[in-house]
Amino acid sequence: MKYSISHVRAGIAALLVLFALVSYELSGLVQKAEAIPAFARKYDFKCNVCHVPGFPKLNDFGNLFRDRGYQLGSDADSPVYEGIGMGYWPVSLRTTVGYQAANVRTDGRGVTTGGFGFTGLDLLSFGTLDRNLAFGVVFTPGLGSAGFGTGGSDGDLEAAFVRLMRLERFFGVKSVSGDYLLNLKVGKFELDLPFSEKRSPTLNTTFAMYHYMPGTPYTATIGGTSTSSYLNPNTFAIGENQPGAELSGIKKTAGTDGYFRYSLSALATNSFSGPLSGCASGTTCGTGGRNVNFYGHVTQSFGGYGIVTGQRVGLFGAYGTAPTLVNPTCPTCQAVAGSGQPFTRLGVDVSLTLNGEWNLFGAWMWGNDSKNMFVSQGIADAQNASWNGAFVELDYAPALLPLLEMPDWFFAYRYDLIRNNRQGDPTFAKNYNNVDSHTVLVRYFIHHSTRTDLALHAEYNSYRTTGVGTNGGDLLGQTMLVGFDFAY
Questions:
Q1: What's the CATH number where 173 sits?
Q2: In the chain, at which end, N or C, are there fewer CB atoms within 10 A of the end residue's CB?
C-alpha cells in the first residue's frame, strides 16, 4: 500500500494526541519516587540529583560527577565500601520500545515505512575500581530484529575504558577538593564533544555535523535511496566513539564562580573504513592506518557549570590524516592502509541558561578535507572539500507553570545545518549535500525508582538534503518515534 506525506503527517498527529492522553492518565496513576538506576543503587540518589529532570541529559551536578570519575569524594566512592547494599551491581540496561515511522523521497520517488519494535539494547557498566580509578563499558549486542524493522544491529563494545584520576598528586601538585587537574583515560570512548550525543534527549535524530562526510549524502533512518555521491576515504566523525588516550582536567575558577575544563585526545586510525584505492568495486577494504589523530576541547563556565545554572563557552578541534592507499600485497588486511592525507575540524560552542529551566546551546564547526583524498579516488581536478556545520537546541524542563505543576516533563527543539563551501569533486554543485534538519520532542517521566526509570517519548524530525538525487533533486525526509524509553 502506498502512503503519501499527508498520511504520514496524519499518523504523527494521531500518535501525538495518543501520547498526550496516555501521559495525562499516567500522571494521575503513577506514584513518584525519583531516582536513577545505576548510581542510585550505590549512593541512594534521587533522579533529579544528576538529571534534567530525568535521564539521559545530565544537569550541572551530574556533569561534575562524571568529570570527577563518578566520585563524590567520600568513602562511598569505593566499590567495597561497607555501606553499599549487597544488592548493588554497577550494571544497567537500556532500550526503547514503541512505534517508529519514516518517509524519504527524491526525484519523484519515495520510500515509507513504519512499525512497532525496539531500538536495540545497551548494556552499561560505569563506576570505580578503587578511589580515583574509574571505568566504563558499553556493550551493544547484535540483534537481527532491532531498529524497528529498518535493519538489524551489529554487536560490539561501544565503549571500554579505564580512567586514572588526579595524577597531579604524583608530581607534587596539590589540588583543592573538587579539582581533578590531570586524568588519563585509555580505551575506546566518546570524545569530549560540545554536547554529548550519548546524553542527548533525542533518540531518533543524530547531530548532523558530528557525523557529516563530504560526498556522502546525508539521510536519517532510511538508507538505500537512489542518490548521487562521490568517494571520500575520510570516515572520521567526532560523534563516533574512538579508540585512544585522553588527558583531561577540571578546576573551579573562583573569579568566574565556574569551571575550566580541558580534554586532549590522541586517537588511533584503525577505525577508518572508507572506500580506498585498490579495493574491488563496491567494497570496503584496507581499514585503518599507522597514524595518530588528535582532538581537543576546552571550556570555561561562569556562575555554574552552564547546563542548569550559569553560562559556558568552548573551543574544540580535530586534526589528523585519513588513509588513502591499501597494502597492495594484502588489500583486505586490517590496519595497513597508508598514504594518509590531512583533514581539519575547528569549532566553538556556547551554552546559556535561564531560571534553572531553560538551556539554549549550540555549536559551529568548520571542516576541511585535503584534495589529495579525492585525487586518490580518481577524481579529476580534485579540490579541498570545505564545509560548515552547526546546530542550536533549546531545552525546557519546567518546574512550575501558572496553576500547573510539570516537574516530570521535558521539551526540546533542535535545528541542524550543513553548508558546503567547496566540493572535493568540482563537478558537483557548491550547495550539493547542504542539510537543514528540524527536530522537536516531548518526554514525560512516568516512573523513577532506585532501580528503574521509564519515560514516554515522542520525537519528530524533518530534513532536507540539497541536490543529492540522481537528477539533482533534493532529498526530503521525515522520521517519527513514539515509545517507552526505559533503563534498569
A1: 2.40.160.10
A2: N
How far apart CA 379 and CA 330 sit, in angstroms, is 24
Report the alpha-carbon distance of residue 286 to residue 324 in Å, rounded: 9
**CB distance 450 to 38 below 8 Å:** no
How many C-beta atoms lie closer than 10 Å to residue 4's C-beta? 12
In order of 18, 46, 152, the CA distances from 37 in angstroms are 28, 10, 27
* Cβ contacts of 356 within 8 Å, gap of 6 or more: 308, 309, 399
Predicted pLDDT at 342: 94
Q: Does a cis peptide bond (omega within 30 degrees of 0) precede residue 56?
A: yes
Rounded to whole angstroms, the Cα distance separating 306 from 395 reads 13
Q: Give the structural domain span for 124.
A: 5-487
What are residue 96's phi and psi, to 5 degrees? -130, 130
Number of other CB atoms surrounding residue 230 within 10 Å: 19
pLDDT 10s digits, 176-223: 888 999 999 999 999 999 999 999 999 989 999 999 999 999 988 776
Please give the tally of structural domains in the chain: 1
